[in-house]
Structures are given as structure tokens and as C-alpha cells.
Amino acid sequence: MYFLKKFPKWMIVALSLGAMNSAFAANMKQANTHKSDVKGASSQKGQAKNTTAEVAQFNVGVKKDKMEFDVDTLTAKPGQKVVIKFTNSMSKDMGLKHNLVIVKPGTEAEVAMAGLTATEAKNYVPEKNPNVIKATKLLASDESESIEFTAPTTPGEYPFICTYPGHYVTMKGKLVIK
Ligand SMILES: [Cu+2]
Questions:
Q1: Distance 163 CA to ligand 1 centre (A)
Q2: CA 34 / ligand 1 centre spacing (Å)
Q3: Which of 13, 35, 102, 120 has the most beta carbons within 10 angstroms of its beta carbon?
Q4: Structural domain tally of the chain?
Q5: Is residue 93 part of a domain?
Q6: Which residues of the chain have pLDDT under 70?
Q7: What is the pLDDT of residue 95?
Q8: Per-residue pLDDT tens for 19-48?
């Protein structure tokens, strides 16, 4: 090959050494530390308290440092009286407001989108939306609100979400009626 013959031997050796040095430097850069992944303790909430036979009572909070409710599933009977006490138990320094909105099956995205155009004064809950079953106000850190309603008579999975803009993607659970 005419092209290679133009290079003296020492130059080819120098080029090879240069390539080895680059590879060595790249290896040295992989000195990243990994943060440990601490998961919150699992919650025992979500089971109705047997205070009376007629009322399904629940406490729902927010995980300390995550945009998630601390309960995934609530269960009640069709037509049963339901009381949900929702507490914004997220860490104060996160400073986020949350609500809890129960909606008809499969409508959580639609209600969350409609909530975006509702103002904060309206708690980001769309007014007169037939898919909203019951909603709390927006609650600041440490605030609570209890909502009471009659469970739907149609069995199914009724999502509960936070409609604060951007939250519903991770802040969701379901009320199972069966
Ligand atoms: Cu929220």
C-alpha cells in the first residue's frame, strides 16, 4: 500500500500508543458513584376499618418524598357509604399541594386534562364534569379533608387521582367496588 509506506515506522508506533492512552483515560473516567436507592416502607393502609358495618372508612396520605398516594387500592361494596380522609402528608419542604379526586372508570386522563384549565381557585377540578364522583380541595402540607359519598352501584375500578397539573401520572390509585 503506497499510503502506509509514506509513514516512517516510528510514526505508526506513536499513533498506536496514542490510541492506547485514550482508551486508558476513558476507563479512568468511569469512577461514578451510585446513590443508594432507599424505598419507603410499605403501608398497611387501604383496608376499611370495621368501625360500623355500614361505612367503609379510609385514611389516604401522600408518601413523604414521592409524588404518590400511600395507598394503591381501596375496596367497598356497591352503594356502601364511603368516608375517605385525605391528608397531604408529604414533607413540608417539598411544598406541594394535592387533592384526591374520584372519577368514573377509565376517565382519569380526561378529568386530569380538564382540570388543567380549571384554576387553582377551583382546585384544578373541572366543574360539572359528569366523570367526577367526589373531590377534596387542594390541600397544603399537613392539611386534611374528609369526603363522604355513596359508592357507585356499578362494580368496577374507580380511579382516584390528584388533579394538580402534572401529578396524576404518578398520583393515582383505585377504589374497587365489588
Ligand atoms: Cu398532587
A1: 6
A2: 29
A3: 102
A4: 1
A5: yes
A6: 1-53
A7: 87
A8: 444 433 333 333 333 333 333 333 345 555
Distance 171 CA to ligand 1 centre (A): 6
CA 26 – ligand 1 centroid, Å: 43
Distance 145 CA to ligand 1 centre (A): 14
The pLDDT score that the predictor gives to residue 54 is 87
Q: What pLDDT score was predicted for residue 6?
A: 52
Residue 33's pLDDT is: 32
pTM over 0.85: no
Q: Domain residues for 144?
A: 55-177
- Predicted local distance difference test score (pLDDT) of residue 53: 60
Query: Could you tell me the distance, in angstroms and rounded to a whole number, from the CA of residue 43 to the centre of ligand 1?
Result: 19
Residue 50 within a domain: no
Cell of 73: 387500592
3-state secondary structure of 98: strand
In a domain, 88, yes or no: yes
Report the CATH number at residue 92: 2.60.40.420
Give domain status of residue 80, yes or no. yes
Start-to-end CA span in the chain (Å): 81
Cα of 111 from ligand 1 centre, angstroms: 14
Name the grid cell of 143. 392539611
For 119, how many CA atoms within 13 A lie in the half-sphere containing its CB? 1
Cα(161) to centroid(ligand 1), Å: 8
